[in-house]
């Protein structure tokens, strides 16, 4: 019944918003425009993120623009990691207004931080804490502290770190206060934040807890370079989005540790990234690829997929990982495949829509009705898209 109601709502909203219909017909036609220069697409994505912040009105960024209901409420988790993107864009352009926007995000996050130190879960201002969300907001607070030296941001990150350590299992995983109440390998992005706070404060407790989690994630590694627990739920295949969360978290941790552990992380992340790269190159011809030449939305534990859609967020996240590996090992094939993915996602970005919720945004899926955040434009897709373009141009 819920699906029927959603379909009816989508039909009604599409009639009221021709901009929705144009995206649906574009994706049905399988004809995408030629991408424009990076700067055009980057500026459009940043402007869309500004609109998402303005739509939420409180300082945080609206989570998603949906065909069904328009802008959702503010999303603490993703607002947190949009902060470093705005700071980087401000440094790139010399426009301090984006630092001001980042400060408003960080201050809003402090204003709603739970008394325990944790960050609230879900879209809106909910009462329950979530481990992953806490780590993502910490990344924002750390970036603001480094930019402004305002102690309130570091204090908030330290309080959040103390909560994370107190909630960690003895073996280094988090299984309490997690999405779907199960452990996730992608929580290593939380560990990345924990290591950053440890580096700023010299807190050995934070550092030791981070190492425990890294070792737990590495213990999930299989011979074919697959990591267990990368999905949102145990009965579903992980999205490229959460696979990339896992690999990026590990990769960033490798820059903050030394010795054998650093080498082990780099080896395993490289092997997993090669699996995805090789699959993509073998299936990029749209004539033989169900996902139209794009990366598929999910993979199974054999690194195979039968998906007919692509998770655009995961595509640009993987592009970031491939480019970072290129900077480490000099293998240009990583850079080349990253550029291909960025160009594909650029081609899906609508730059002419009169609808502010669409113009400059990045959809959850291509085609728009794909299974990931279907008929919606999530703010994290635009965030990682902007990050990928800025990284590409820095290289």
Give a short summary of the structure.
The chain is built from 14 helices and 5 strands. With 395 residues, it is mainly alpha-helical.
Account of the protein in words:
The chain starts with a helix and ends with a helix. It has helices at 2-16, 18-29, 38-56, 76-93, 97-112, 131-148, 151-167, 188-201, 204-218, 240-254, 259-283, 312-329, 332-348, 379-394; strands spanning 64-66, 70-71, 310-311, 365-366, 376-378. The protein is mostly helical and 395 residues long. It has a single domain (2-394), classed as Glycosyltransferase (Alpha/alpha barrel), CATH 1.50.10.10. Helix 3 (38-56) packs antiparallel against helix 14 (379-394).
Short descriptors:
395 residues; 3-stranded antiparallel β-sheet; two-stranded antiparallel sheet; single chain; Glycosyltransferase; mainly alpha
Q: Any chance you could write out the topology, listing elements then pairs?
A:
Layout: H1 2-16, H2 18-29, H3 38-56, E1 64-66, E2 70-71, H4 76-93, H5 97-112, H6 131-148, H7 151-167, H8 188-201, H9 204-218, H10 240-254, H11 259-283, E3 310-311, H12 312-329, H13 332-348, E4 365-366, E5 376-378, H14 379-394
Antiparallel strand pairs: 1-2, 1-5, 3-4
């Amino acid at each position: 019944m819920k699906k029927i109601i959603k379909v009816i709502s989508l039909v009604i909203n599409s009639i009221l918003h021709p901009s929705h219909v144009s995206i649906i017909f574009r994706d049905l036609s399988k004809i995408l425009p030629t991408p424009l220069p990076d700067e055009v697409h980057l500026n459009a994505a940043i402007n869309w993120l500004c609109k998402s912040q303005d739509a939420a009105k409180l300082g945080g960024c609206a989570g998603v623009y949906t065909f069904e209901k328009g802008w959702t409420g503010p999303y603490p988790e993703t607002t947190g990691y949009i902060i470093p993107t705005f700071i980087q864009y401000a440094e790139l352009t010399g426009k301090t207004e984006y630092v001001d926007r980042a400060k408003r995000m960080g201050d809003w996050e402090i204003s709603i931080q739970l008394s325990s130190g944790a960050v609230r879960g879900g879209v809106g201002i909910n009462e329950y804490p979530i481990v992953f969300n806490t780590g993502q907001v910490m990344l924002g607070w750390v970036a603001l502290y480094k930019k402004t030296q305002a102690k309130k941001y570091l204090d908030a990150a330290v309080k959040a770190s103390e909560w994370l350590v107190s909630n960690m299992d003895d073996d280094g995983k988090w299984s309490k206060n997690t999405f779907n109440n199960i452990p996730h390998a992608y929580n290593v992005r939380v560990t990345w934040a924990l290591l950053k706070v440890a580096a700023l404060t010299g807190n050995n407790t934070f550092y030791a807890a981070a190492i425990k989690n890294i070792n737990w994630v590495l213990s999930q590694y299989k011979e074919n370079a697959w990591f267990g627990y990368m999905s949102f739920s145990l009965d579903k295949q992980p999205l490229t989005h959460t696979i990339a969360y896992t690999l990026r978290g590990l990769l960033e941790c490798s820059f903050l540790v030394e010795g054998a552990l650093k080498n082990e992380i780099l080896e395993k992340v490289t092997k997993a990234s090669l699996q995805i790269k090789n699959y993509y190159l073998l299936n990029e011809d749209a004539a033989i690829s169900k996902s139209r030449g794009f990366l598929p939305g999910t993979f199974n534990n054999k690194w195979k997929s039968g998906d007919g859609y692509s998770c655009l967020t995961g595509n640009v996240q993987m592009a970031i990982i491939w480019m970072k590996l290129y900077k480490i090992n000099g293998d240009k094939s990583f850079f080349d495949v990253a550029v291909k993915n960025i160009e594909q996602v650029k081609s899906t970005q609508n730059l002419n829509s009169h609808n502010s919720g669409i113009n400059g945004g990045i959809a959850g899926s291509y085609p728009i009705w794909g299974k990931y955040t279907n008929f919606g434009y999530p703010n994290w897709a635009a965030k990682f898209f902007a990050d990928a373009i800025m990284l590409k141009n820095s290289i």
